[in-house]
Amino acid sequence: xxxxxxxxxxxxxxxxxxxxxxxxxxxxxxxxxxxxxxxxxxxxxxxxxxxxxxxxxxxxxxxxxxxxxxxxxxxxxxxxxxxxxxxxxxxxxxxxxxxxxxxxxxxxxxxxxxxxxxxxxxxxxxxxxxxxxxxxxxxxxxxxxxxxxxxxxxxxxxxxxxxxxxxxxxxxxxxxxxxxxxxxxxxxxxxxxxxxxxxxxxxxxxxxxxxxxxxxxxxxxxxxxxxxxxxxxxxxxxxxxxxxxxxxxxxxxxxxxxxxxxxxxxxxxxxxxxxxxxxxxxxxxxxxxxxxxxxxxxxxxxxxxxxxxxxxxxxxxxxxxxxxxxxxxxxxxxxxxxxxxxxxxxxxxxxxxxxxxxxxxxxxxxxxxxxxxxxxxxxxxxxxxxxxxxxxxxxxxxxxxxxxxxxxxxxxxxxxxxxxxxxxxxxxxxxx
Length: 432
Known about the structure:
The protein is an alpha/beta fold and 432 residues long. The chain folds into three domains: 170 residues, 3-Layer(aba) Sandwich (Rossmann fold), CATH 3.40.50; 125 residues, 3-Layer(aba) Sandwich (Rossmann fold), CATH 3.40.50.1980; 95 residues, Rossmann fold (3-Layer(aba) Sandwich). It is built from 17 helices and 14 strands. Strand 13, helix 15 and strand 14 form a beta-alpha-beta unit. The radius of gyration is 22 Å and the shape is globular.
């Protein structure tokens, strides 16, 4: 297939239909991270049971092993014939009842796949009987790739379902508590964001990956406000705002200094405090300049698997003298990114944006042989000669100006000690 079908100049990318359509979307390297099972098991005191044919379960089995989730993850292999005839419901109910009898966790996620979506299976009776007999909460979820782009993503649905464990908690706001939503790995222990909030009088940050049980998770009901770092959490924060009166702001992980100042402004408005960041910004600018001196003029590609927006990072790199000429994205470009794309059209209209899941890209690495730095796992897989900087969601998480410096330090390290992208990525389980 012609590579031109998989790409578009950023000057021509003005709305969703402009993005290259993938007639048969592949599971590209951009899809590494924040899977359904990973999302569900962020909730403390939970286990996940995935049911379906072996071919559907295989990928999640690899992922659970690589991420260390096998202790809380079960799979029930079902035949296609049983599913077609509806005989799988009895087997499913018995299997989950057996697991519930042997586990202390209070929550069981029942994860189904595409076959049950196609068949229109109704799980209401099974779930009601299981909840009555086990005394545990059963939450229905899906790993159904055929629904991607057609409705709320399975990942967002799983994360939003956590609200059911908060909605009955008493709403007694505590001015010192802030909720941090949308992190898979928690922020680093000495995070800049913690310091900025503490200086503003908020000394307790509640984030789901650090909650050991549902009691700790319930502290979110006392939050003065919620700060969302990843779009996946917008559904949950929206419910907390609408139904519990917890103000929310979307301030995603960013790398550009001006964008970071804007994000802190949103956070300050949400928590009702003036946040002092001037000293953090000044130090970051001073530390960043000598690194930029080393990198200016380098050919760069940015992928959509990074923690943050590839369009936002591209703008920051362009502003500081790097030659960004290639971006990798997916058809589900996030609403807030269209303003960033508009800014890119003005600054560098000839940047090529590729659909990372397009079949026209399969095996295509030669067009990117000249790229010197690739940000993101997906960009690293296509740009085989480049120094790869993954900025992965599975690495220690940074926020604010420290995220910019960390990105630059990671770049300097990758340039100084180049290794095989393929070996590095698979060796660190960043791609399954």
